[in-house]
Write a structure and sequence with these properties.
Blueprint lengths: L7 H11 L3 H7 E2 L5 E2 L5 E3 L2 E5 L16 E5 L2 E10 L12 E8 L4 E8 L4 E10 L2 E8 L12 E6 L8 E4 L2 E4 L8 E4 L2 E4 L3 E3 L1 E4 L8 E5 L6 E5 L9 E6 L6 E10 L1 E2 L7 E3 L12 E7 L8 E6 L5 E7 L2 E6 L2 E7 L7 E7 L2 E2 L3 E3 L9 H10 L5 E4 L2 E4 L8 E2 L4 E2 L5 E2 L29 E2 H18 L6 E4 L4 E4 L7 H20 L5 E3 L3 H4 L20 E3 L4 H17 L5 H20 L16 H16 L2 H16 L1 H11 L5 H22 L16 H17 L6 H11 L42 E3 L3 E3 L8 H4 L5 H23 L1
Helix pairs in contact: 3-16, 4-5, 4-7, 4-16, 5-7, 5-8, 7-8, 7-9, 8-9, 9-10, 10-11, 11-12, 13-14, 13-16, 14-16
Amino acid sequence: MKTQNYPIFLFLILLLLSGGCSSNKSELFTRNNELVLNDSNYFETEGLNYFVFSNKYDAMFDDSKVSAVEIIQHGIRTATNGDVRLNPTPGQWDRMPKFIDRIVNKEKKSIDVKLEYPQYGFKYTLRGEARDGGFYLSITTDKALPDSLAGVAGLNIEFFPPLLFEHSYLMDGKPGFFPTSSADNMTVINGIVEPKPLCTGKELEIAPDAPLQHISIQNKIEGSELMLFDGRDKQQNGTFVVRTLLPANKTGKIAEWFIQATTQKGWLRSPNICYSQVGYHPSQSKMAVVELDKNDPEVSKMTLYKVGNDGSLKDVLSGKPESWGIYTRYKYVRFDFSSVNESGIYKLAYGDQLSGPFTIDKAVYDRAWFPTLDVFMPVQMDHMFVREAYRVWHGAAHIDDASQAPLNYSHWDGWTQGSTTDSKYKPGQHIPGLNVGGWFDAGDFDIQTPSQQEVVKSLVEVWDEFALNHDETTVDQKARYTEIHLPDGKPDILQQVEQGALQLVAQVKAIGHAIPGINESHLYQYRHLGDALTKSDGIPGNEDDRMAFTTRSSSLNYNSAASLAAASRVLPIINPQLAKESLQMAKYIWDDEHKNQYKQDDVPFFVRSDFKEREESSAAFELWRATGKEVYKLRLDEIWPKLIEKFNMNAIFLIQIAPYMDNSFREQIKPLVKSYVDAQIKAETLNPFGISISLHSWAGNGMILRRGIVGYQIHKIYPDLVDPESIYSSLNYIYGCHPYHNRSFVSGVGVQPKKIAYGNNRADHSFIPGGIVPGVRLLNPDFPENRDDYQFHWSENEYVIPLAPQYIYLVNAVKTLLDKQMETEK
């Protein structure tokens, strides 16, 4: 949440509106949008932006609801996907146009976008234009709509449902309200089940009862009409869609809307006080970052209050916040309260904004990682029945795994099978033995082998570094049973290592090498929300079995060898037989790869690697540690000089192995590590949070966690190169000191954490405790976003399993450093 208190002026506005003072309302709000086409090439006025293909469609994952024509109203992106679509309520994998070109005309205040549906031979131009106190959105074409698209193609724009709940609409003056749950009649269009419109007409007023969200759309083409649909009738991540069908047998301008949005005069985005929702250790630096509207004057005083036993607020530190400058579209100031180290509950005040509570205490990190290990990781366990007290998270799913994927096959989300199965199994044939271990990779239920490998190695690193003898979960692999919050006398970290090793061993035993992974056979299964047990019938050999994608990859193979060799060192404590098998499979992979020169066929994008030598080095390193045999060390010594030549690409691995190498190795790489750290430090000066923030389509919390971990590992080897405070700042960012809002990105952790996220329970508008979301995504050119009202943006809110052990590692690294620092201070 941004704050607990709204600005006083907003309460006055609401008070005036509730009293029906229309004259006051007209003074406070306007529908006359005097838009300019700014230097960032989007349309802007006070409290309002229109993006016109500032963000293109995602070529890999199709409709991500972050593209085409979009509306940002009073700091919140309210609408997206304004474009020609072939469904009234499109889903992620429904047909989309191909982007060709974008032409910005500052003089005419217009943006033209050339697009086409090549499979139908339909090309068109989408134009966004500012004039007449509003925004015109039109479609023109030189060639009439193909017959196959008549009654099918339409101009759509989508509105995010949570923003419209509890609000109304008017279509040509006829009232209605936006329902919190869809309940519409359905019909069939072009063989596809679609909802019937909620209403039709010429002019739609969206949320006229809520001036901060009010948008009007007028249809300007005679003979056509606006339709309003509820897309949640078809898919839980559906939106409210406004649509106009494109006419047949016409050329030129075939669709046009005039859009106006009510804006508040003098609107300023409320200050966002960014701080750690978990709190602070007394010995660490403490910096609050305040995110401001770029036109908001800075206040001269910021205050830290301590909460008394009676609820009173005591001013313990006040001062003028430091101006930082502009980052993205916002202005920032910072307030350093590091001098305060007394244990207690605190709040921060900036102007009339008061933050929620947080603590300063030496125990703030002691339990912060519990939900991730105790709940999130067990919930993600595949092939297991998972219970938590009265709740069953899911049954023992995918016991019928898996059938061989077909040849020369392109699935969805980048999954592919090459020209050979690289196995003894024929396409469609059941492959026995794969129905054990592994984790659901993300918010879906597939097993991506690179994720499994990464998690196993990360968990072993956690055990090696911190020996967390934490036991709050019962895991019985023979019974396929997991129970959360029920100790069984075995360290939970090692039981999770066991879960991953079982799947990786099974792949090699069944097929002879690591495989890209296992994915649903049918799209309706992939979109399945609910108990994973119900996705298939549990009987091997039926059409509902998941597919095993089995194309061989040496890089993937070496990564399994590394993971299994690492697992073999720690598993004897709980499962000596699996430890033995893990090492056997790792050695088998190593020997097989060195005896044979396998042709590398097409593999899914997520297993491709241009650094096969790094993967081989990792396998050599882990096998050397597991066996002590010189043959592996000799190969490692042969390869690592080549890795040093491209140090930045291999830095994480080289830093990881440095403690186990001789002094000459550490001295040789130290200048390179210093340059690497210097580059990180430089990148961290580019924003007020002191963190290198991702500018890519997938938000960057994984990168930030790795930054903290690598910083800790460098600090252990070269204490002079990394300031521990830079490690703490990574965790502070995750916990709420980041752009857009100040929620903790770890569900269930911190005073105000993420309460809805893209987990496999996302249809319940809920979360999985301990899951870490991807974080803040930057929508081009300058809009940072992490939706807290719409969990279905997977690039911002989808849990992925590799972040879990990384987070556990970083929390314990920070705790270890601070405990040592406190001892030193004594």
